[in-house]
TrEMBL record:
Subunit structure: Interacts with COX5B; this interaction may contribute to localize PYROXD2 to the inner face of the inner mitochondrial membrane.
Functional description taken from the UniProt entry: Probable oxidoreductase that may play a role as regulator of mitochondrial function.
Pfam families according to UniProt: Amino_oxidase
Protein name per UniProt: Pyridine nucleotide-disulfide oxidoreductase domain-containing protein 2
Amine oxidase domain location: 27-510
Superkingdom: Bacteria
GO molecular function terms attached to this record: oxidoreductase activity
Phylogenetic lineage: Bacteria, Bacillati, Actinomycetota, Actinomycetes, Streptosporangiales
Length: 525
């Protein structure tokens, strides 16, 4: 059992209870719960490494461990998977997190820096340096979230019906708004507004779009509680722990085993075929974390059902991303009036600059003038990721998959990367050219090529446009209309980011339909 590179047909069993398609973290979370419930589980992964977008790789130089996509594991901390350690990942299976303070630092053009701490009072005091009124507004925002809205958000994340009280109505009203409107209604100082808009973009959703209104409060609460939650050893530490847990319960994860078809016989999902012709039969269920823009084309032995066709036809990438990875001689620090500030995460971009960037994105134009940037230097808190005192560095931002000016990203990505590096260099120390050992620029086209799930350069699962015109970040059902074919992954509710919610929610659905009490392996929300 264990992680394998596929190989001969004899390397895979003829049949198992449940086949999970895809070893991203949600597929593995789902498999982990099913295995813990006593089911024989096989996870089939197309790539030669498990983890999907929770993977750590040597992208620049040997020994420098870069998180290819996800870096912070904040959202998953409030999931009972981690909060209550339901599968023993933090205990028996070696997963370790450090919760940083500062949570994030936002350097300003005047040489100052706003420092967000893992503490409400300290962060409010920091905000008060710019606006006492906004400091009080910040306290109220967090207080309102704690007073019922957080519980409603947990219900929403678990795909459960809203509660019956006043908080449910307030939460639904807030969800319908845009993060931009919420921030500009509640805060007045430009620096504080920029800070809150920056936070709202953490899950890579356009803050100007209706439906993002809960993000300023929900992301703020997560950062206050958990900081920049960093998995020790890299993002791959999460899938590695999950694989150890699956193996301990008799399951298996096979890499280099891309699934080409999901077979339907007698009206239900019964087997899968890999691209090299191997067949494995599923005695009880198939769980697919394949991208919902592709899953309809993988069904064999039946007409494409209406729900999967609708998912395919209504999906769109949303915001695509541009990344810069670098190997450095040593860590960077953010400039502040009190001196350099070491932080695993830094944020760039004023509210007005982000609005211009979003408008340019929708026109097909990259914008490096004052964009939303996430700057990550996780060797500040996890130095084992680089040799000889070195550092791993990353910039993440938003850029269109196709440029309106007709230029290819292959010819222009290094120019864009240098512009972004220059902006970060102007407000930090340690990013001087002589400190940069190697650099790798990844345009949205490269991001899509890196992982087949990143369609359109979107590493957060994209979004769906409903018939009513509402945009939702994830498909709402974990059941397909094909009996015993279940859905999970970043294209299912509540969407992308490292939350583990699609995996846990799907596992609850599978267990319920198979007549196994989910309480055997998981508690309430």
């Amino acid at each position: 059992m264990g992680v394998t590179n596929g190989g001969r047909a004899a390397d895979l069993p003829d049949s198992v209870d449940v086949i999970v398609v895809g070893a991203g973290h949600n597929g593995l979370v789902c498999a982990g719960y099913l295995a813990a419930a006593g089911l024989e589980v096989l996870v089939l992964e197309a790539r030669d490494v498990p983890g999907g977008d929770t993977v750590t790789e040597e992208l620049t130089l040997p020994g420098f461990a870069h998180d290819s996509c996800s870096s912070a594991h904040v959202l998953i901390q409030s999931n009972p998977l981690i909060r209550d350690d339901e599968l023993g990942l933090l205990g028996a299976y070696g997963l370790e997190y450090t919760m940083t303070d500062p949570a994030v630092v936002l350097p300003q053009a005047d040489g100052d820096a706003l420092v967000m701490h893992r503490d409400l009072g300290a962060t409010a005091d920091e905000i008060a340096r710019w606006s006492r009124a906004d400091a009080e507004a910040f306290r109220r925002l967090v207080g309102e979230w704690s007073d019922g809205l957080a519980a409603e958000h947990a219900r929403w994340s678990s795909n459960l019906p809203p509660g019956d009280g006043d908080a449910a109505g307030r939460y639904q009203a807030l969800r319908r708004r845009s993060a931009w409107d919420v921030v500009h209604e509640r805060f007045e100082n430009p620096v504080v507004r920029s800070f809150m808009v920056w936070l709202a973009l953490a899950t890579i959703q356009d803050p100007c779009r209706p439906g993002t209104g809960v993000l300023p409060a929900s992301i703020t609460a997560g950062r206050l509680n958990f900081g920049w939650t960093t998995p020790i050893g890299g993002s791959s530490a999460l899938p590695a722990a999950l694989i150890r847990q699956i193996e301990a319960h008799g399951g298996r994860v096979a890499c280099s085993a891309p699934v080409s078809s999901i077979d339907v016989e007698g009206g239900r999902a019964v087997a899968v075929h890999t691209a090299d012709g191997r067949e494995v039969r599923a005695r009880q269920a198939v769980v697919s974390s394949a991208h919902l823009a592709r899953l309809a084309g993988m069904v064999s032995g039946a007409d494409v059902p209406a729900d999967l066709a609708q998912a395919r036809d209504t999906w769109r990438p949303g915001l695509s991303v541009f990344a810069v990875h670098a190997a450095l001689r040593h860590d960077i620090a953010v400039n502040g009036k009190g001196g350099p500030v070491a932080s695993a995460a830094a944020g760039f971009g004023t509210a007005e600059g982000v609005a211009r960037q979003m408008a340019a994105f929708h026109r097909g134009e990259p914008d490096a003038s004052d964009p939303w940037l996430l700057v990550v230097d996780q060797t500040v808190v996890d130095p084992g990721r680089a040799p000889d005192g070195g550092a791993t560095f990353k910039i993440l931002t938003i850029a269109p998959y196709e440029r309106a000016d007709g230029r290819s990203w292959e010819e222009s990505k290094h120019e864009h990367a240098e512009a972004l590096i220059g902006l970060v260099r102007s407000r930090t120390t340690g990013l001087e050219p002589e400190n940069v050992l190697a650099m790798r620029a990844e345009s949205p086209v490269d991001v899509a090529a890196h992982n087949m799930h990143n369609l359109g350069g979107s590493c957060h699962g994209g979004e769906f446009l409903t018939p009513s015109g509402e945009v939702i970040p994830g498909w709402l059902s974990y059941r397909s209309s094909i009996p015993r074919l279940f859905l999970t992954g970043a294209t299912t509710h509540p969407g992308g980011s490292v939350s583990g919610r699609p995996g846990r929610n799907a596992a609850r659905t599978v267990l319920t339909d198979l007549g196994i009490d989910p309480a055997k392996v998981m508690g309430p929300i």
